Amino acid sequence: MPKVILHIGTMKTGTTSIQETLSNNADVMSRFNYTYVGPPMRTSAVLGPTIKALTDTKHDLIISDEGLWHFADSKRSDTHKLAGLLRGYDVTVLIYLRRPDSFLNSWFQQGLKSGTGAKTMSQFLDSPFVKSGLEFSKRIKRFETLFGAGSIKLRAYEKSQLKGGDAVLDFLHVTNLPAEDFMLPQPKNKTPDTDSLLLRSLYQRDLGRSSKLLANLGKLNQHLSNNGYKGRRYNLLTKAELQTIITTYQPEFSRLQSEYGGGVSPSFFESWPDIENANNSLLDLRMVQEEMLSLES
Fold first, then answer.
1. Cβ(273)–Cβ(249) under 8 Å?
2. Where is 91: in which H helix or E strand?
3. Residue 234 contacts residue 101 (beta carbons within 8 Å)
4. Listing from the earlier edge strand, what are the strands of the sheet with 34-37?
5. Half-sphere exposure of 39 (CA within 13 A, CB side)
6. pTM for the full model?
7. Do residues 258 and 241 lie in contact, with contact meaning Cβ atoms separated by under 8 Å?
8. Does 228 score more than 60 pLDDT?
9. How far is CA 295 from the centre of its chain?
10. Among the four given CATH numbers 3.10.20, 2.60.40, 3.40.50, 3.40.109, the one describing domain 3-99+135-181
11. Cβ contacts of 48 within 8 Å, gap of 6 or more
């Protein structure tokens, strides 16, 4: 029976770099009997014809799309039909999980950077879509039900636990593909610092997203960096929000580690944030930004 590695994310766990590596190394993949099928592959209407069009039906498949996780069982991803298409394969569902507080910070700031996400952290945390993306146990169990016991493989997106401290190297290691044979992607531009992202968000409301606007926002960021402004990177969650996250998710990840393995026993992640070290005074800009934007609501 041919195999499928169904890589479903989650978001902010190096998925884009993994997909770029697989896409740019089709010849290497072929030598090791793999065909890569990349995003968007979250609906049966797209995946079905793609599988039928494959020229080498003896190859194993790697299918990667983080939307398989985030849009599971919604209008944007008909999960049960996708499972039906893969019924003739031995499926391993590969899931990278990031510590929830880190995941939320990164996801929100990515939205600020692109101008397509929630305007404030409070709005972001209240979003039903964000909350559904944090239903770890429920979604993992759903995929296990569809693809069978033993189909789930969890990996901790934590530098100390990734092979070589890198998501791409870890993915190749997990899939038994030799990293030395692959052309690896160059490091991407880092997300701007937290202070700059919050300030830039104040200039994005009601202005559209023209190339001219985005260019000016880039100039603003450069100006802030070059003229005595020292941008900081920090956790945007308050002590109370962090406490809620730890209370809610640390026991859940311990259960996931016990049931599925992956991570470090018994807590899955090697470290969780220390509430006592959280510094709410760093959040002044977040609170000002939220107050200013609320005036426009």
1. no
2. strand 90-97
3. no
4. 34-37, 60-64, 3-7, 90-97, 152-156
5. 17
6. 0.89
7. no
8. no
9. 32
10. 3.40.50
11. 85
